[in-house]
Amino acid sequence: MFKILAKINKLILPSFTKNGLDIAKAKKWQLAILAYRYYVTTRALDC
């Protein structure tokens, strides 16, 4: 299930690292998206 979510995230959600986002200056919603993507990616790799 997490592998499917990771693929959907890659297609839909923005990639902040490609845009050069500075985490110290990130807004709350950007940090929330980063945390969600991190959570899904780590769970997908554990399977």
Supply database-style keywords.
single chain, mainly alpha, 2 helices, 64% helix, SsrA-binding protein
Any chance you could write out the topology, listing elements then pairs?
Elements: H1 2-12, H2 28-46
Summarize, please.
The protein has 47 residues and is mainly alpha-helical.
Q: Describe it for me?
A:
This protein is mostly helical and 47 residues long. The protein has one domain. It contains 2 helices and no strands. The protein has helices spanning 2-12, 28-46. α1 (2-12) runs antiparallel to α2 (28-46). The longest helix has 19 residues, at 28-46. The chain starts with a helix and ends with a helix. The relative contact order is 0.22.
Contiguous uncertain segments of 5+ residues: none
Q: Judging from the principal axes of the Cα atoms, what is the shape?
A: elongated
How many angstroms separate the termini? 9 Å
Alpha plus pi helix count: 2
**Helical residue percent band:** 55-70%
Computed structural class: mainly alpha
Q: Beta fraction of the residues? A: under 5%
The Rg value, from CA coordinates, equals 11 Å
**Total DSSP E strands:** 0
Mind summarizing the main beta sheet?
none
Tell me the number of structural domains: 1
Mean pLDDT across residues: 86
Order of helices and strands: HH
Protein name: SsrA-binding protein
